[in-house]
Amino acid sequence: MSAQPRGYSELVLPALGAPTPVSPPRLTDRADGSFTSVSPALSRFPVMRRRSSPTAEKDSDTELKQRPAAGCQQGPVEGSMKPFRRLGVMGRMKRIMMVLLLVYISIPFIIKLFPSIQAKLVFLNFVRRPYFIDLKRPLDQGLNHTHNFYMEPVMGQKIGVWHTVPAHMWRDSQGKDGDWFKSMFSSTHPVILYLHGNSGTRGGDHRVQLYKVLSSLGYHVVAFDYRGWGDSDGYPSEGAMTDDALFIYDWLKQQMGKSLPLYIWGHSLGTGVGTNLVKRLCDRGSPPDALVLESPFTNIREEAKSHPFSMVYRFLPGFDWFFLDSISANNICFTSDENVNHISCPVLILHAEDDPVVPFHLGKKVQVFGVEYVKTCQSVLNVISQLPPLFVCWETWTMSQLKHLWFAWF
């Protein structure tokens, strides 16, 4: 007889006569430790029975079976996880600090290896505010007396232009085409060519507000987007920006009467474009009637060093080599401090003392360079300090007061 499994008794089945097909039995466990079949033919016969032993009793002890589960809930595992969690948080903080330090150190090297990145940071022409604006519809910006058109300073590259007529002409301008707007340049109203700064478009909110102010004072305002800005084609560069401004200026002089004044207004980075433009005009003997510099700076190197974005690297050894030389590598200079020495037309400087982007002391230095040049030319320089904000004047002052102040500047 073969050896029986240990712990089990011999299986004995009575004679069942002729075999009858039965379904294979499925064994289930009873509470007393025996196994029974679920088949109807065999359900009355005990199949197997465990031997009663201390080990089996311990195995069937429900309290013992529950003990490991209780240990998983109340054992030392939960308590031992707390210090690991604290260490995990500290580890993550250290990892974040290491990543930030790595980024801080790598940025100067990346800019030095790829100087074109610095050019994009100077122009910021990819930043468009407001984002959802159709520049073909200046009416959406509240300019109901403005005409949008396009010009080609270079063959195959167009730039977008806005022409805003004086505010009192708004009724006459309704439904008029480009020829009517062009004919208005020959009227008796002076023209301002506006050169905007970096980022945004000619439809920026603060720029539109300025158009309204100047239009209410009786000026034609012509604003355009340089190559690479707004809906204009091409790519930005200092030379291209100056060429675009010169192209628009010459076109305006052809449309205007010879006796009508034409002023150039530059803001922020546009002041660098403005001084470049006026220097060219003065060198060829045809200066504009006046130049307005709003928030000017001496040159792009000093402005970049004073910009809030450079604050975290300003005292880093090699700052000039990493950042400023990368700007010069892109032929970006905007040397207004040198250009003012070649400008012979009247210049008006407007600068806020709390300007967060272009510090006031840079505009003051431009004025100082202008004073030195004026001394050599034996000209007269008037300095107006503590001037109220232009928008405040427009909202609170009467039209006669505004015109008196404005024409006093020139």
From TrEMBL:
Localization in the cell: Endoplasmic reticulum membrane
GO cellular component labels: endoplasmic reticulum membrane
Any GO molecular function: monoacylglycerol lipase activity
Statement: the UniProt record of this protein carries the keyword Transmembrane helix: yes
Major place of residence: endoplasmic reticulum
Annotated segments matching region Disordered: 1-77
UniProt keyword Hydrolase present: yes
Entry's family note: Belongs to the serine esterase family.
Role played: Lysophosphatidylserine (LPS) lipase that mediates the hydrolysis of lysophosphatidylserine, a class of signaling lipids that regulates immunological and neurological processes. Represents a major lysophosphatidylserine lipase in the brain, thereby playing a key role in the central nervous system. Also able to hydrolyze oxidized phosphatidylserine; oxidized phosphatidylserine is produced in response to severe inflammatory stress and constitutes a proapoptotic 'eat me' signal.
Protein name in UniProt: Lysophosphatidylserine lipase ABHD12
Naturally occurring in which organism (per UniProt): Nothobranchius furzeri
